[in-house]
Amino acid sequence: MRSNTITAPIRQLFLLLTGFVVVIALLESDGLASWANHLDIGPLRTVAVPATVALEKTLAPLGIANLRGDTLLNLARVGWSDDPALLAAAGPLPALTPDLPRVSAPAGSPKPTTPTAPHSSFPHAAGSEAPLLSDLPHTTTLTPLPPIQPGKPRVVALAGDSMMAVGLSATLMRQAATDKNLRIVKAFKSGTGLARPEVFNWMDEYPAMLGTEQPDVVLVAIGANDGQGFVVDGKVLPYGSDGWRKVYQDRLASYLAMVSAGGARVVWVGLPPMRAPSYDEKIAAINRIAYSVVSQQPQATFWNPVTLIGDDQGRFHEFTTLPNGQTMRMRATDGIHLSDEGAGLLTNVLLKWLDPPSPAPANQPHRAQPRRRTPLQPPPAPTSHPPSSSGAYTGRFPADLRPNLHRNHPTPQRRLRLAPRLQSRPHLAPGLVPTQQLLPRSLIAPPVQSLQ
Amino acid sequence: MLFPTVEYALFFLTVLAIAWSLYRLPRLHNAFLLLASYVFYGFWNWTYLPLLIGISVFSGLVAQRIQRSPSPLARKRWLIAGVVVCLATLSFYKYTAFLLTTLLDIWGRFAPPPHIPVYSPLLPLGISFFVFHAISLMGDCYRNKVKQPVTLADALLYVAFFPQLIAGPILRASRFLPQLAIRRDPDHLRINRAFLLIVGGLFKKVIISNMLATRLVEPVFAVPQSYGSLDTLLAVYGYAAQIYCDFSGYTDIAIGCALLLGYRFPRNFNAPYTATDPQAFWRRWHISLSTWLRDYLYFPLGGSRKGSLRTYVNLMITMLLGGLWHGAGWTFVVWGGLQGTYLVTHRLWARIAWAPLVQLRQTAAWRWVSRLLLFHAVCVGWVFFRASSFENAFQVFGRLAVPAAASLATGPVLIVLFLGLAGQYMPPRWRNGFEVELSRWPALARGAALAAAITAIEVLGPTGVAPFIYFQF
């Protein structure tokens, strides 16, 4: 008899699920709309956005969505949240979180006098007016920074997505941990980008991440998640389309204007070559846009890391052999991010520019420089490792593995030149790769830890 | 597809509804679950779907051959061939670069190494788990633990069943295949237990694990030099809580989802930090892996039947390989070596039969001392497990000796750290009592309570969902 009817446990299960669906729709209507809005451009989003927006509008008169928003703000007020933008919106923190110094700002460090301006004060940066440049630079020249004043460390902000968060930031912070001349400010977040401000709006978040800090230098590595389409004014702009390029270029220009506000020098670290060929093409296109915009900004410099990270042809290069015969992993196992050792190739050069060794008078012993730890401990470099005849430092691999070992040698202030080791470069076609393919979802998820 | 996402919720609700609509038709029901499992896997990255299907088909065919072979020698040969192919596949994806770089480094110490381009294939999601399932299928057939004839359809679903596909628990073919052979029985549905497991798992993952990771563990392990002893100690404890909540949270959700579909998965964690000795710890931590290693590695090596010395050697081999299973790196090998050393040391210690010591071991005070000692020994292992390199691990240990105030010990961090560690001392009767209490509520009210609990978790959790730690294994 029971075989023809719905059994009691199944009826219970379906009733329970009904109750669940109804209440979750009531409580999370705005959360669901936000989720749909965050989806990649595709069929799921096409269905989910109108459905969840309709649900949100229908339930709006009940005022439950406001309750959720208020709860989030109250949680931020008592210190539960660490989302900088939410914290800024919630106001001062009482109670749960003690007044502790920021990791990036040691106690006693001078407070900047000029707080970072909110993004709305930035003029509109029309990046799309810049011509799209086809060839990335082989050689990058960084003009020397002003000398560091005693007791006033140089404030360096690390900005970007997981390309900064994984490998690069940790390596740089470890190397600079004992350097009193540098103060590092963390302004990066994995799983973000410039293509989708509705998912993560850097124009709001960056000022909140900086707080009262005013960086002298900003190192940027961003764009790994930007190979995807987006919606502007209800119109879908597929990745690679002309409209997409113009909007993305504008967003990138606005971001650059924001991070360089207050006179900060910006080094835009280009994205390295990637393992997956289709993804590598997208990244190359994003690099070209970034270079086109960055080259318009006198305070900013685009640094193409392929000279250090890629192989002789400028292609993806996962492992390399050190002069001592050891094999070194340069890239994380995902074929996207830098390994700590790979990041060390870049940070060694950057640190030498950020805090150059002081020239010692000829008749005095060399001033001891704070020793930074590097992820690599290669054999001592020959002392003949010279600056180039033009007076520029040739940051060429494998010599770049060793700069920290030279820090006690007097080196005059000079323009730091990051020269290539490319013998030949593959032809980089101008413009974007016209493809509809979306970035794999796995690239957007922030990693918990370095993959092994 | 990650468990704590809207995508998974929509997927699971759909699968649940259709699966119970088909429960009277077991073959169709199983075929539907297989299809759903492939959608679940392919949603993340479909590239490796053929590999998953290939391993499943291969192990199913080998299992059939083993069952049908009358000769013990032929059965053994089929088993060896099957295991070799499975392990070779796992090794290719997981250990190629590790083995090559190790070899070249050793070579480079004596002579200029040859120029061999080192290649590291992209690791297919969940490969360590589905390969172990495939081996379990063949191993259980070899030992005659699978009574019914294995069909290809059963083998496919056993290896790919979506709740356990990505990060376990590692099911035994001998226990799961019989479940596939019978019709689902709605009268055995434990809805309340399943929902408590899912809500508890989400709480552990989304709130405790994610908050500890982002606000305590990651900052300290990224730049240990920036933190003093208190922060470092908290970060080490924090990682112990994080990895427990992350992994046990995942398996709780997996067990809960399987339970709602009418399948029983084995328990995978049982308050591991309450253990008083290493042997007990491994009976409580990742139980499905430790029993797998015991049955398919430790016992075949001889277990404890060949004398004390051989027992210790077998323990060390098992734990070293267990460490390597977790990741292709020397830090994981050291972690496994430490676990083996703990097990051997404990066995030696337990053999001391001096009367006062025996009496001391039986006291409650000594049990607490043992618990604390073991917890800290486990934490030492976790530092190697979490660190990106030996240098990083020793930096963390070094900072434990540098006195400084705690800058990361905020209220929320301390609360979730306490919950993550002390929660293991929660008496099981509380959960059982709550389950009984829930059963008295009307179904609609229970659904509403579930929705409210999930909303609270979503609001309290940090933004964004980090992948589960064990996904990488």
Tell me what the structure shows.
The complex is a heterodimer of chains A (452) and B (473). Chain A is of the alpha/beta class. Chain A folds into two domains: 81 residues, no CATH class; 317 residues, Rossmann fold (3-Layer(aba) Sandwich), CATH 3.40.50.1110. In chain A, 33% of the residues lie in helices and 11% in strands. Chain A has 13 helices and twelve strands. Chain A has a five-stranded parallel beta sheet with strand order 3-2-4-7-8, with helices on both faces. A three-stranded mixed beta sheet of chain A has the order 1-12-11, with no helix packed on it. A two-stranded antiparallel ribbon of chain A has the order 5-6. In chain A, helix 10 links the parallel strand 7 and strand 8. The longest helix of chain A has 20 residues. The radius of gyration of chain A is 25 Å and the shape is globular. The C terminus of chain A is likely disordered. In chain B, helix 12 packs across helix 13. Chain B contains 20 helices and no strands. Chain B is mostly helical. Chain B has two domains: 179 residues, no CATH class; 233 residues, no CATH class. The model of chain B has no long low-confidence stretch (mean pLDDT 91). The chains are: A alpha/beta (452), B mainly alpha (473). The interface between A and B is large, with 76 and 87 residues.
Strand order of the largest sheet of chain A: 3-2-4-7-8
CA distance, first residue to last residue of chain A: 57 Å
Radius of gyration of chain A: 25 Å
What form of chain B results from the Cα inertia axes? Answer: globular
Name of the CATH superfamily of the largest domain in chain A: SGNH hydrolase
Number of strands of chain A: 12
Main sheet summary of chain B: none
Mean pLDDT of chain A: 71
Number of strands of chain B: 0
Bin the strand percentage of chain B: under 5%
Number of separate helices of chain B: 20
Helix/strand order of chain B, N-terminal first:
HHHHHHHHHHHHHHHHHHHH
